[in-house]
Design brief:
This protein is of the alpha+beta class and 177 residues long. The protein has 2 helices and 11 strands; from the N terminus they run E-E-E-E-E-E-H-E-E-E-E-H-E. The radius of gyration is 19 Å and the shape is elongated.
């Protein structure tokens, strides 16, 4: 220790996350709904089990994240609105074991309808979920997921960034009748 300086250990650092300005593009015209989504997300067909025609993922490759989007046509007698609503709330409530809190709220979206959004805090696999419906013909649901073991407090800037994108998606959301 030269020159008698007092050595102090440096505090732990955190990775710097540089996030770009938000930019959006229109969804292709092949869906029964339309919205704007982030230019930093890639639109991919859902490849999970029991996938339906208009189910897609918005994949954020730079952040190892995706927003899974599902759609149900309520005209189909197998798709009962009350069942879909209960399922949406149950899917959120399954996380109550690990969630510190679940903040549910309704937001008025410009198409005149309401979207239900749930923000989950804690080490949960999904930090943000939402759904909207016209209650007679269409039901649309989404959830944000990360494919990483990184703890959610470290992902916080990215979670907030993608939440802004989701809110923009909901604010530009319209049904195509």
């Amino acid at each position: 220790m030269a020159c008698e300086e007092v050595y102090l250990p440096k505090p732990k650092g955190f990775n710097r996350i540089d996030l770009p300005e938000h930019a959006y593009q229109a969804l292709p015209d092949t869906f029964p709904y339309k919205f704007k989504y982030s230019k930093y997300a890639q639109l991919e067909a859902d490849s999970g089990e029991n996938v339906e025609r208009y189910w897609v993922n918005l994949v954020y490759p730079d952040y190892d994240a995706l927003v899974q989007l599902t759609y149900k046509n309520l005209v189909d007698p197998n798709n009962k609105p009350e069942v879909l609503l209960n399922e949406a709330f149950e899917l959120t409530q399954r996380h109550i074991i690990k969630a510190y809190s679940i903040d549910e709220s309704l937001i008025q979206i410009p198409n005149g309808q309401v979207a239900s959004v749930s923000e989950l805090e804690g080490e949960v696999p999904t930090q943000f979920q939402f759904f909207t419906s016209d209650s007679t013909n269409n039901f649309f649901r989404g959830a944000l997921y990360f494919n990483t073991a990184t703890q959610n407090d470290s992902l916080s800037p990215i979670i907030e960034f993608i939440k802004v994108d989701i809110i923009e998606m909901l604010n530009s959301f319209e049904w195509k009748y």
